Amino acid sequence: MTHSTKPAVRPARPHFSSGPCAKRPGWSPEVLKNAFLGRSHRAKEGKARLRLAIDKTRQLLGLPEDYVCGIVPGSDTGAFEMAMWSLLGARGVEALAWESFGKGWVTDILKQLKLQDVRVHEADYGALPDLSKVDFSRDVVFTWNGTTSGVRVPNGDWIPADREGLTLVDATSAAFAQDVDWSKIDVATFSWQKVLGGEAAHGMLVLSPRAIARLESYTPPWPMPKLFRLTKGGKVMSGVFEGETINTPSMLCVEDWLDTLAWAESIGGLRALQARADANAQVIFDWVERTPWVANLARDPATRSNTSVCLSIVDPAVAQLSVEQQWAFAKQIAGLLDKEGVAYDIAAYREAPPGLRIWTGSTVERSDLEALTPWLDWAFETARTSLPKAA
Fold it and tell me: Residue 273's Cα: distance from chain center in Å?
């Protein structure tokens, strides 16, 4: 087969979006038939379902016994905003940013919370900032996995166990797929629709005993929206971590989350989920190694994400184009694959450099990624024919 010929094999599930992500293998709406609907989520049975979702999440992640975990509104964004608004300001802040979501947290810290004692550690897409320069006597804010750059922290070794400040971690595309060292994290947030392919609008907030102590000893100077309030009378509202949600949750989404947690348990739990993501990402990494027109945006192999693999188009004929033309070319590739029904939503994030982004998280099947790579070559060759001829 030449690259100009359409491949014979198509991915069985062409869902490679980085959020919402592919549903778990074998999913169908039938799994929602026992959802607790038409009743108050505050009823005994409703709270029991919510508590079960929390307990199963804790168990799957292997959270320490003295950490708490709760369901909160607004997906990962809501959960992380809640953490920042409730906890920051007691100490100086170290804010790390190497992709769009991390940069968004920096913007909120500086322009919304208007904190003055802030040091920003920033790096371009494809790299990490110098982690050795982070001062852990201060509160540290970062994303574990940069979804829009495909760059993750390699581990938690750079975080001291005896830190004075808190670590606030956006872990939404890392939790369940990457080995997160919980002893190094005081606050973690994630959403249901990433690694396990759940549904949107629900976030999860994990707090260490040190974070709880901060909540109960520090009152931020700014007005606190109701959706962000985690304390009452100087004490943490424990109900949030026992199934009493701050606002009304979707019990359909809760049922879906319980189903995907059961699937995760059935295949071997956390290690199996991590192994699936590793094997999936390796399919793309191996293809990149043998493909001259593409490169991994994450330059250091130790920092390459195993969930959101971000790719640059490095073919000389494309690299010499303007940024706008490079974006048009990448979107043309994505559009060709979408039209063929072999890959949906794989253009790079709108604020990232032009290129492609392929989700390889735990709910994706390796065989589908293996079927995808010849189609990537076909789409590149097809789009390349429309490029202007060199003078």
Answer: 15
Task: Report helix, strand or coil for 190.
Answer: strand
Task: Write out the DSSP string of 295-330.
Answer: EESS-SGGGB-SSEEEEEE--HHHHTS-HHHHHHHH
- Per-residue pLDDT band at 301 (split at 50, 70, 90): very high
Q: How far apart are CA 361 and CA 342, in angstroms?
A: 17
DSSP string of 23-65, one letter each residue? PPTT--GGGGTT---SS-TTSHHHHHHHHHHHHHHHHHHT--T
CATH dotted code for 269-384 = 3.90.1150.10
pLDDT for 387 = 84
Tell me the C-alpha distance between 97 and 38, whole Å.
43
The arithmetic mean of pLDDT across residues 49-54, rounded, is 97
The Cα 349–Cα 34 span in angstroms is 36
Q: How far apart are the C-alpha atoms of 304 and 174, rounded to whole Å?
A: 12
Tokens standing for residue 361:
């998280």
Can you give the pLDDT at residue 112? 97
Q: What is the pTM (predicted TM-score) of this model?
A: 0.96
- Judge: domain 29-265, CATH 3.40.640.10: yes
